[in-house]
Amino acid sequence: MNNRPTWQERPTLFGLTLKGFTLTVIVLVMIYPIYVVILTSLSTASAVTAAGGLVTLPTDLSLDAYRELFGGGVVTRAVLVSTGVTLVGTTVSLGLTILAAYGLSRTNSLFHRPLLFLFLLTFLFTPGMIPTYLMVRELGLIDSYWSLILPSAISAFNLVVMRAFFMNIPGEVIDSARIDGAGDFRILGRIVLPMSKGVTAVIGLFYAVGYWNAFFNAVLYINDNSKWPLQLILRQYVQQGMDLVPNTRTYDSAAGALPPNLAIKMAIIVVALIPVLIIYPFVQKHFTKGVIIGAVKG
């Protein structure tokens, strides 16, 4: 059965070929850097030396870089910190965003317009780094994991998208629930959220990726390097060229040589990429329904 609109012409062979070639090139451009990073992280010192840096062709593969990486304890602890901050932060942010978006989507709610104006005002004006740091310090959150969560707990953009989606839910459904005696929290939990799984999954992914990739709050508020998240470790030891493992390393592989620092740095990047690469395919199907509908119709 042909579902093509009558006004839309059939694609030509040249057009299909050009589209396929273009998509293939884009995919290769996106995958090639990841391939090089993974391959370099699995290469031995001799392979890295022979390649003169990043390895593009597999020659001598080894897991020594990952053994060295997780054997020192620094990266293992940083992964646990980032995982905890991401899980707790996403839960807090998603919960606050849902509550605020639902309240602001009800036009007859108390202080609806002033509160909405305050949220929208953050699109134009931000408090700045110094006032935010002073507030965090006065709250006693320096060197606390909460300093990585609370300053960015709610995103105004995510709130506006979710509010727009909630406003598209038919009012008759909510009114019928009120007639049956349901309160706001019951309506939110039993009716609104089940109808908003797509946008909730997308906003949750936005928050999770944001917390997982964040490092600047740790630079400002975390002085204890035992509480550094993975992204700050990545910045310190990859971007600034610092040695991840001290010179007193005792690890000895079967070849009798330590893995090169470049392989260890690439291994850190791989560890930082894995969670996003795993989670994204499961949430990708919700993007069109969750974000596009909520943003356009709102």
From TrEMBL:
Q: Which GO terms describe its biological process?
A: transmembrane transport
Mind listing the UniProt keywords for this protein, alphabetically? Cell membrane, Membrane, Transmembrane, Transmembrane helix, Transport
The residue ranges crossing the membrane are: 21-54, 74-103, 115-136, 148-166, 187-209, 262-283
Q: Which Pfam families match?
A: BPD_transp_1
Spell out the InterPro entries in the cross-references: MetI-like, MetI-like_sf
Q: Which domain of life is it from?
A: Bacteria
Q: Per the annotation, which location comes first and is thus the protein's main one?
A: membrane
Entry's family note: Belongs to the binding-protein-dependent transport system permease family.
Q: What is this protein called?
A: ABC transporter permease
Which organism does this record belong to? Acrocarpospora macrocephala
